[in-house]
Write a structure and sequence with these properties.
This protein is α+β, with helices and mostly antiparallel strands and 182 residues long. The protein has one domain (2-181). Helix content is 39%, strand content 13%. It is built from seven helices and five strands. It has helices at 2-6, 54-67, 79-88, 105-108, 111-114, 116-124, 142-166, and strands at 28-33, 42-47, 98-101, 172-175, 178-181. The strands form two sheets. Strands 3-5-4 form a three-stranded antiparallel β-sheet, with no helix packed on it. A hairpin with an 8-residue loop joins strand 1 (28-33) and strand 2. The model has no long low-confidence stretch (mean pLDDT 79).
Length: 182
């Protein structure tokens, strides 16, 4: 509750009750077996729904999405859009496709490196303060998807764009952690 009360510029005093979980519990961990991968590795997933900061995290995600406009230059909206984009590309029998997968995306995004991207975006949008977590992103946390998207789009629009030009790659598409290049 102290954190909510201290956020006077972000949370109106009459709406603070919306962000307090009255019966909080520790996040629980579960998981899924990834049968489609060799050795069927276990994907841990944290359920944050009853965590003390869950409602604050959800509010933070809404605020970040409202203030940081991401370009989504390389993102695939859905399979129909991907098929249309691929159909629009000029055909060449020498073109080769490669499908890549970001291994353990959330747990491999390092917070210290990830923070440089949103800091720049916050500065550009005149936003003060930033949420800080010391280690990697947690699967299941409300903020993990937006922070990973900010980080990946920062990479895509700088480093990946340079690689596309340098290696004469025709196209690059990404859907969450799956990548298709030509």
């Amino acid at each position: 509750m102290n954190t909510v009360n201290e956020c006077q510029q972000i949370i109106h005093k009459y709406g603070r009750w919306k962000y307090v979980n009255l019966n909080p519990t520790s996040p629980t961990i579960g998981g899924l077996l990834k049968f489609h991968k060799e050795g069927a590795p276990f994907r841990p997933i944290v359920n944050w729904n009853n965590a003390p900061a869950y409602k604050l995290d959800k509010m933070l995600v809404r605020k970040i999405r409202a203030h940081i406009l991401l370009p989504y230059t390389f993102n695939v909206e859905n399979t129909v859009k991907l098929m249309n984009d691929l159909t629009d590309l000029p055909y060449d029998h020498n073109i080769k496709f490669a499908s890549l997968d970001i291994n353990n995306m959330y747990s491999n995004i390092l917070i210290k490196e990830m923070l440089t991207t949103p800091e720049k975006l916050y500065e550009m949008n005149n936003i003060e303060g930033i949420y800080v977590q010391n280690e990697c992103l947690t699967m299941g946390a409300p903020t993990s998807s937006i922070f990973s998207e900010i980080y990946l789009q920062g990479l895509q629009n700088t480093k990946f764009a340079e690689l596309l030009l340098k290696h004469k790659l025709e196209s690059y598409f990404r859907y969450v952690d799956d990548i298709l290049i030509m």
